[in-house]
Each structure stands twice: as C-alpha cells, then as structure tokens.
Amino acid sequence: MKCIRCDKDSNKRARAGGQCPHCSEPFAFDPTSGDPFTDAAFNKSLELVSGNGKVRWVDDNLRYELARRGGAGKAGCGVVGVFALGGALVFFGLIGAANGVFGLLVLSALGVVLLLAGAAVSLDRRKWKGQLLSKPELEEYLRRWAAAHKPPLTRIVRRREVERAPPAELAEYSFDRAVICDRSETVDLLLANNFHFENNCAVLSSGGYPRHIFDTVRTMLRNNPRLYVFALHDATVQGCMLAQQLAQSYEWFPSALVIDVGLRPGHTHGLEFAFQPATKLVPVNAPVTAEEREWLDKHTCELAGLRPDQIIKRLYRAMASAPDLSLGKYPNLAAAAAAAGLVVAGGYYVDQNALRSKAQASDGGGDSFG
Amino acid sequence: MSALCGFAGQAAPGVVEAMLAAITSRGERQEIVAVPGCTLGYRTTGAGAIARDERSVLAFAGTLAPGVESPAEALRERWPFDFSELDGAFALAHWSLPARSLSLCRDPFGVRSLYYVAHADTLYFASELRALLAIPQLPRTLDFAAIHKYLTFSFVPGDAMPFAGIKRLPPGQLLTFCDGKLATTRYFTLEEQLDPRFEEQDRAVRVVRRVAQRATRRRLFDTRRVALFLSGGLDSASVAVWLKHAGAEVHAFSLDFGEHSVERDQAREAAAALEIPQRWVPVTAEVIADAFERAADHLELPFGDPVTVPQFLLGRAASAAGLDTVFNGEGGDQLFGGWTNKPMIAAEVYAGMYEQEPASRAEMYLQSYHRFYGSEDELYSPDFKTRIGAPGQRRALLQPYLADDDHSFLSHIRTADIALKGSDNILPRAEAMASAWGLRLEVPLFDRKLARLAFRLPPQLKLHGACEKFVLKLAMQKLLPSANVWRRKFGMSVPITDYVLSPAFTPLREELLGERAVRARGFFRPQFIAELCSGQDQPNETRRRRVGERLWVLMMLEAWMRRFVDRSLR
After folding, report:
1. Nearest-angstrom CA–CA distance, A281 and A300
2. Which of A94, A324, B261, B313 is the most exposed place for a label (fewest CB within 10 A)?
3. Confidence label for A114 from pLDDT (cuts 50, 70 and 90)
4. CA B190 to chain centre
C-alpha cells in the first residue's frame, strides 16, 4: 500500500502501528484491516470531488464520489500479478501432466487457488463499487483522515453561528434571479462556492434554509417583478414537483418566470451508480411525463451524484440560456421560452438540456451577466 | 491637448527640458518659466500658456467645466480661489513667489493625472509619469507592492506608483509644498447626504435630467462637432441625447465584435432613434493583436481591462474622421448604482455562513475584480512573494470606503467604485487612449454637481429592487428606445478569451508570456501561466472569459515592464 506523502510502498507487516515504515507518517486507512479504501484512493476521491482543490463540496458529494470510484480503485498490480502467476502455474502444471509428469499437477492446483484468491479480491472490490457510505460512516472516515493528514479545506462546514447580519437596507433591494433547492445541502454547495456572488442570485431551500436570512431574502425577491427562478432538485417525486409548487405559490413568487432545471429522470444518464430504489409510488397528479413516471416508480437519484463543479456549471448553463425578456425580441413569454428550448409545463418551464450533459465554462451572449 | 511639469527647489540644469522632451505627444509647442524657487514646463497643441505675473505663476493642463478661454490666467488671477465649484479634467501647478509655496491640484475625479516625487529637498511633478522618469538624476526602483495590487485590481490603485517614491496625487486634492514640507487637503469629497425632497420620485427625475444636461453642456465649450463612443447601453445613449439637446453635432462610434456582439443591435437602435451618424469599428483578434503594442506605448501604467485596446481603436476612428473631442458614458454605474454593485449585495446578504470562507466585506470586494486575488500562491514565484510587502495592503486601501458607519451600504460600494474603478482605472485609461490620437476626452457623468446630486438621492432611486440606475432610466425613458433604457445590462462584453487564445495572438502571447519571457521576468510560475494559455477548463470557473481577462492582465504588465522598467531602471 502506497504512502501518499513519500509515495513508497509497504506491506502489512512493515506497517506496524499504522505508520509508513519509510517516512513514519500515519495512514488513515488500511484495506487489509477492513477499511473500504486506501489513503491513495480516498485522496484521489478528494481531488476529484474538489476539482483539485478549487471547488468546495458537501459530504454527500464525497459519498457519491467514493461510490463512483469503488473501494480501493481498480485492481492493483498485486492482484494482476496473482492472476498472472496463478494462470502460469495452471498452464505449466497441465503441460507437465500432458507429458507424463503428473507431480506438476500440484502446480496447477496451486495456480487454481491463486486464481480463486485474485477473483475474490476483485469481486470484493466490484461489490463495493456503487455502495454508498452512510453519513455517519463518512463522518467517521473524515475524522480519521483529518487525524492522520489534515482536514480537507474544501469541505463545506457550516459555522455554528453566523457572525454578522446583513444591513437592514438590503431588504429594499433584490436579485435578478433565484435558485430554490429541495435540499439545504445544495444551498450550501452553491453559496460556499460563491454562486450567489458570481451570478447575482439568491439561493434558498424550499424548506426555509438559510434560516437567519430566509425571510429577508424572500422579501427581497418580491421586490423584483421580473425575477427568474430556477428550481434545482433531486430526481425524486418531491423534487420534480418543486417547480410547480413555486410557480403556484403566491407566497413564494407573486410574479416570476419559474424554470425547472432538474434533476429530472431524463438527466440521469451516466448517474446509474447513484440510483437508489424508489420507496413510494408517484402520485396520480404529479407533474411528470409517462416516461418520467415509469422511471420514478423504480428509482430515485440525488443531485449530489453529480460532481460539484458540474452542478455549478450546468446550473449556470441553464441560467445563461434562459430567455432574456428585457430584449423585447419576443411577443410573449411562451415565444421567448420556446426560443430558449424550454418545455412548457403547468405555469412553469422545464429545461430538458442544461443538466443532461457535461458543461464547461462558457462565454458570450447571455453569459455577459455578472 | 496639454501637459505640465516642473519642480520646486533646486535641480540640475536641463531637468525641465528633459521632462518636456519625454512628453512631446502632448503638443508640439513648449514653454518653460523659471522663477526663484520654481520652474514650470508646459506643452500644448493649442494656444494655452503658463500664466504669470510678478507674484505667481500657474501652469494648467486640461480643461475646466464650464470652459474658459485661458484657464491658467483665469485661475491665477483668482488665486487662492474657491475650490468648491472647481470642475473639469485638469492638472494644475501654482507657485507663489512671496510665500515660496507650490500648490498642485487635480480635477475632482481624476480624468487627468498628476504625479510627484520628493528628492533632495526638491519636489518634482508632472501630469505624465514619463516626464518624471526622464529626470536624469532621479533613482528608480520598482515597487513590487504596486505590481501586487495591480494583479488584484487590473490597474494600479491608490497613490503609490510602481516606482518607489513616486506618488500620484489623488483626485479632488490640493497638495502644498513649502519650506520642504508637504501637505495635502481634500477640496472635494463625496458623502451620502440624503435629501428628503428627493423622496418624491418625479422631482428627483426632473432634477437629474436637468443637472446631467448641464453637465454635458458645460463640457462642450466652443466645440460643436464631437465624437461619442456609443455602446448601446443607457449611459452612452443618454450622453448622446444631452449632446444633441446642447446643440452639438454628434458622431457616434461603436464597436462591432461581429458574431460576438452583444450590444450591436442596441447601439444601432440608439443611433437611429437619435438620428446621429454612426461609424462601426470592427474588432477581431487580428485587429486587437495588431494594435496591442501601439496602444501599450500610450499607457503610462499597466491597465488590464480588455476594453483598453478597443478604446484605442475607437480613438483612431474618431481622429481619422477629423474630430478632436470625444465624449463617453463612463460613470453611470458608479454614480447611479449599476450592475457592478449587485454581487456585493449578494455577498453581504449571505456573508459568514461557512468555515474557511472570506468573511470580510473587503475580501469579497477584492474578489469581485476576478483577477488574481486568492491565486497568489499559485501565480507568484517565491522570489516575487518576498518582495510584495506585508499582508493587508489591499484591504487597507479599501478601509476608508467600506468601514461600517451611518451611511448606506450602497453608498459605501459606490464610493469605493468611484475612487478605485473610476479614478484609478476608467478615467486615466480612457484619457490615455483618447490622447493617443490627440483627442480631448470629456466624461459628463463624472461631473461634480451630478455626483453630489446622486449622493443626495435615496438609495432606492438608484437600485430599485433589482433595477439598477433606476432614476436615470426614469429620466431617459421617453427620450430613448426601450431597449437602451430597460434592457438588462452587464457591461461591455469583449470576447477576450477567444481573442487571446486565437492563432492571431500566438506570436504576441509567446513573446510576452512564453516560458522564456516568464522565467526571465522571474515574477510568476511558468506552469501556472502555461496552464492559463492552454485554455483548460477550470473546475471553479463558469465563465470562460476569466481566462482571457487574466491573461490580458499579465500581457499588459509585461508590455508595461518592457517599456517603463527595463528601459529606465538603474
């Protein structure tokens, strides 16, 4: 098992006390002791989920990143070597037996044992892939990681108390757009990555988070009669109903253009590893298509299955492609929405594309904002 | 066009001649007046001269608003005059013979610059930095702290210039130098003083319209044919309206970014509605690359805003059309609460929620420039890091503007924007790019009375919900097409990343930011710059233009270093 500090390998016996025998620094994990991953694999997951330290993430993102990668990662050289040696022993044993040296069949037997052992290790890893750690499990692993290395700086941790309240004057202003999420963790992901700052965007959860400014921000949003609202949610029944709830709630938005960005079932290609079984049937009157109903009857999928940078970039893509009604190009809202490729639903619009595929940084046109 | 320079004290013979020789672009005619204790130098294309009598001498570079025929003489006669009404685009130097006292003064917002340096009991000064750098005996060392700030802001903020000891007089200030002692006082400050009469919206709208109209008229002088840089946004279109109402013959010049254009239709619509002739200035990567070095020749400080070279091209077009005065619409965002204020409001609402986040207002403000704040460890070489000085300098710059007090949050942000973005970036850069073509620049929105008015209006007339510049929109809605007034505006969008990463830019990019150049300069880590130049998609960036903006900052810095440091340092 390689040490991520000195990059040197060591076997279990040499790692007495859980330390690298070369640099004496501690390991956080050891699969030979039952941990599901090595330090290298965990570190790689941290790099991937954080975009090499540039993007902040919530714990759910890391849970899915670990599940995406699968345990200790691909079969290492050791397992490949076991397979190769086992195969060679079987081959030579059989060749010997074919030439009348039946004693060499012992080699074949030994080879079969090695092949079975290699297969067991690989299967064990494949069985791990797709399994989601629970939140308490991840908390424990992160605690151990912090103790052996250091706490990952990109992990989003809420402050116990917010240090300053915004000036009362700000309630008179507003935002150009708002993102309403079904989960507070998604709100954290966006805020901690400065999405609100970069896009002049309010970010709230449908459940009232962040509590200390929820009422203020909702008041501010009512100050903009030309507000754009983007619903961002898991691919669940509840999530797929969010945009409709927002569009039909006067308490939320007396007048706003509401766009359902997703995650809807049609956006989940590539996220199969993150599918969870559905636990309830879709209500008869749920605002979903027949195809979506069929999917939702069987599955759910959390938005956190997407890497944080992709959640942010795809959401931005949805915002940048929303119709700019101030241009006066379109005779009415429906025409503007159609031009932007939005599908009309009941009082709101569905963006079928923004979350569907990988997004990169973009430029030009509506990107001008911010 | 004019410029001034000089010294108070003792200097070697020929100093002022050397200073004037460095600024020939400001006029073919020069004049030197030497009196006991002081020598003034002056360059001009026009009829102006240094004013003098037996008691005082005064050199004046620029224009007053309202204009007068001989501003130097008019001011000298009234000296010491009431500064409370002084406005325009100027730098001046006054020497009193009886008091043996020097006074230096700059316009309220900083359209014209004024630099000074004290050396061996003598104070040298000039409206152009080049003139100071031409003084033979003046030691010059690079001030890395100023470069460090430039990399955050994309311009050099504050009074400390990139040469140790050389300072820039802040706008709206008067400097006196007497008996070897230097003192500065403000003659113009902007402070929020809300006037309850302007709670009545109609009154506010009428007064804004009237004061803005007068601000424009005051800057016309006897010129009738003027160029206007028309972007299609509210501000420049409004200036077009006021110029027409003042009887000017307006010629619009607009940038055409081709398929990358965001505001072309709006610019066309405004010109058509106002019935003013419009010339399009095509902008492509090839055009920008071709003009880059010539534009950089005219910039005395590094300016990392991608709009710099397009402005240079606009000036070229206006000059080619035979015009000598240009108006622009800069200032609307700073005075009336433009879209640039909105990120700070969002940041303030959600501040302080997470561990490891910048919690202070100053840090968010620095981040709002989207250049290298927060990337120092990745960009700076270890050697460069040791030279930039103690931490906290950038936040210290912001402290006078952003500290909590009784004034509104919006007024804090606007004051910071006016002082930094306006005075240290927008105005001196625009003036440099206009004067490169012999054009006189006028910026009517940066008018003293208009600014005072803007700070008397209730904040909600500036940012009304999410509607920025609300009172200006109300004032102009019957005078301009709806698309120019009510369209959501987000700044001029120069497709800088496409340009800088295009094949047309490769030779320039290689020359200025190739590995050899970066290693030779020693400021930055070559790998970081190579990664920027590769245009790689970054996980933490949603906007591709950040790549181009950052590269542009670095290219401009290297171009400036070659002109002003490599050739002049001893």
Report:
1. 11
2. A94
3. confident
4. 17
Which residues neighbour A342 within 8 Å (Cβ) at sequence distance 6 or greater?
A259, A322, A323, A349, A350, A351
Among the partner-chain residues A169, A203, A216, the one whose CB lies closest to the CB of B459 is A169
B358 touches chain A (CB under 8 A): no
How does residue A128 score in pLDDT terms, banded at 50, 70 and 90?
A: very low
Nearest residue to B156 via CA among B305, B312, B306, B2 = B305
Question: For B115, phi and psi rounded to 5 degrees?
Answer: -115, 155
Residue with tokens 């006082």: B185
Per the DSSP assignment, residues forming a β-bridge with A252 are: none
Distance, CA of A302 to CA of A65 (rounded, Å): 12
How much is the pLDDT for A370? 43
Residue pair B328/B230 in contact by the 8 Å Cβ criterion: no
Query: Which pLDDT score, from 0 to 100, does residue A367 have?
Result: 38
Helix (H, G, I), strand (E, B) or coil at B104: strand
DSSP string, B422-465: IIIIIHHHHHHHHHTTTPEEE-TTS-HHHHHHHTTS-HHHHSBB
- The DSSP result for B326-373, as a single string, is EE--TTHHHHHT-GGGHHHHHHHHTTT-BTTS--SHHHHHHHTT-SST
**A241: nearest Cα among A277, A203, A208, A286:** A286
- Kindly state the tokens that stand for A130: 């797709």
B541–chain A Cβ distance below 8 A for any pair = yes
Residue whose token pair is 């009304």 = B464
User: At a CB cut-off of 8 Å and minimum separation 6, what does B362 contact?
Assistant: B394, B395, B398, B399, B402
Report strand pairing: A177-181 vs A201-205: parallel
Closest partner residue to A54 (CB to CB) among B343, B540, B544 is: B540
Quote the ipTM score. Answer: 0.91
Residues of A in contact with B528 (CB under 8 A): none
Confidence (pLDDT) at A141:
95
Question: A-chain residues within 8 Å CB-CB of B545?
Answer: 363, 367
Q: Is B403 helix (H, G, I), strand (E, B) or coil?
A: coil
